[in-house]
Amino acid sequence: MRVRIVGEAALVAVDTVGRLCWPVVSRGRVCKSDLSALRAALHAPQLEGLCKLVVVHHAPVLRGGRADWPWHGLRGARGLLRVAREAGADAILCGHIHERFVVPGPPLVVNAASSTELGKEGYFELTIRRGKLERIEERKL
């Protein structure tokens, strides 16, 4: 787990890929120890008053909040969502799913998709003011 403070945001990165990643098995996982570390990181006094953004590769949910299929989704997704909500994360930033979407929270789930996929180029722009996630805007290239 890594924590970086950038301006008014705290980025808390959780590894959902692990040491082994096979091309045909693309599911991720969040272990209980990861959840404990995430809870501790989000409660750290240094993050008080900052916008707390959890960063993972695998999306915990699909568009509309649906679960992904077992060989593609994130094992431990419910735990990740629960800990992020209880510990005050503003959003979970993720990818893996090649579709750009936002699922209401708390916390919000912001899936970036692919910024370079032909015909779907784009990204989300997050506006953070006074330690709060104020706005998310989709930008198309």
Question: Could you walk me through the main structural features you see in this protein, from its secondary elements to its overall organization?
Answer:
The chain has 141 residues and is of the alpha/beta class. It has two helices and ten strands, in the order βββαββαβββββ.
What overall form do the CA principal axes indicate? globular
Q: Nearest-angstrom radius of gyration?
A: 15 Å
| Strands, count | 10
Coarse structural class: alpha/beta
Strand order of the largest sheet: 1-2-4-6-8-7
What is the string of SSEs from the N terminus onward?
EEEHEEHEEEEE
Number of helices: 2
β-strand amount? 35-45%
> Distance between the terminal alpha carbons, to the nearest Å?
32 Å
**Uncertain residue segments:** none
Average of per-residue pLDDT values: 92
Largest sheet: 6 strands, mixed
